[in-house]
Amino acid sequence: MSSPELEPMPLDAEMEKQRAELASIVHRHTWEDGSYGTAITSLFLNRHNTPRDFMPVLVEPALCILASGSKEVRLADEIFAYDPLNYLVFSVAMPVAGRIIEATAQDPNLSVRINIDPAQLTALIAEAGPMGVPSRPTSRGMYVDRIDTQLLDAVLRLARLLDTPKDIGMLAPLINREILYRLLRGPQGYRLYEIAVANSQSHRVSQAIKWLNGNYEQPLRIDDLAKEVNLSVSTLHHRFKAITAMSPLQYQKQLRLQEARRLMIAEGLEASAAGYRVGYESPSQFSREYSRLFGAPPLRDLARLRQSI
């Protein structure tokens, strides 16, 4: 299943100028493949010089905008494709897999990620008052939408601050608020709104997601998790799957396996030790589930990764 097709309308002249400047800023502040933190804590720059097949990763709530190239993100069996015409938003933390489609050393894939602080989103909604955001049935915690001049301009002004560091402390928070405001007022802003409004069922599911991210190595008892976020077990299951495309148990499994992979790569742990660290008691079960997610058992997967570096 894929994200809905959007009409193939090119950027107008002004937006193409904005896109080219954003690409130039990302290009100047990155050097090789990777994700780069910046002096603006919410802003990350990404550069890829070669295509990359689907790579599992846990993403935090964020706005993702491409300045050049295209990407696909897979959530369970759904594909979300985006490019400079369309932006991608994650309203909750998601275990997904990303693929770089177009990239060369001469024409790298360049993008920005702006992390979304749920607390700032909630404060903005409280301060702005009724915003006319429509109420809709619970839907995926990520979406693709067409970019417009106002949002692209705000993102570009935030990126420009990297060239005037003395202005970051004063102006970055203001521009970040504007970006959140424009996302909320966008055609699919209700997806962010329903997550941020305290005591809504979607907000309670986001709290369950937050709990799982902080306690993924613990045995998961659905009854206890439902009580933790003040939902019935059936409502938690239904709403959780509507937002993440997976059950809480499947979500936890993705978290565990991705963290185990990180531990083996970054800390040099053996597979059995990494599996135990993230909550697996059976090495054989860990190896089976790892193979399903990453396409190979731990040792073979790590060897493949090292060859690609």
TrEMBL record:
One of its GO terms (molecular function) is DNA-binding transcription factor activity. Residues 206-304 form the HTH araC/xylS-type domain. It comes from the Bacteria. Keywords: DNA-binding, Transcription, Transcription regulation. The keyword rRNA processing does not apply. InterPro entries: Homeodomain-like_sf, HTH_AraC, Tscrpt_reg_HTH_AraC_N. Pfam families: AraC_N (PF06719), HTH_18 (PF12833). Coiled coil: none annotated. Transmembrane segments: none annotated. This is AraC-type DNA-binding protein. It comes from Pseudomonas antarctica. The gene is rhaS_2.
